Amino acid sequence: MQELTRMLNDVSDSYYDFVVAMLHYAKKSNHLDIMKKYIIDNPSATTSDIIGFVSDQPDFYEDAAYSKVG
Question: Which residues, other chains included, contact 48 with Cβ-Cβ below 8 Å and sequence gap of 6+?
Fold first, then answer.
């Protein structure tokens, strides 16, 4: 997780909430390896690119927390 933290902080337009959100997502299943591979394979990726990649993962909406409106 430390390596991913460094990688996320090294993204050109990185910001605190982005890093925290991506680390939270990476805690589940094989997300850590998938995210590290994406960043390594796309060294010029911006935060928007990485967020888009994560959002496109098939299990993203299963893992997302939704508030109940009631």
Answer: 13
Q: What is the pLDDT of residues 5-56, one digit of tens each?
A: 999 999 999 999 999 999 999 998 789 999 999 999 999 999 999 999 999 9
Show the 3-state SS of the chain: CHHHHHHHHCCCCCCHHHHHHHHHHHCCCCHHHHHHHHHHHCCCCCHHHHHHHHHCCCCHHHHCCCCCCC
Cβ atoms of residues 26 and 20 within 8 Å: no
Identity at 35, one-letter amino acid code = M
pTM to 2 decimal places? 0.84
* N- to C-terminal Cα separation, the chain: 37
Residues whose CB is less than 8 angstroms from the CB of residue 27 and which lie 6 or more positions away in sequence, other chains included: 1
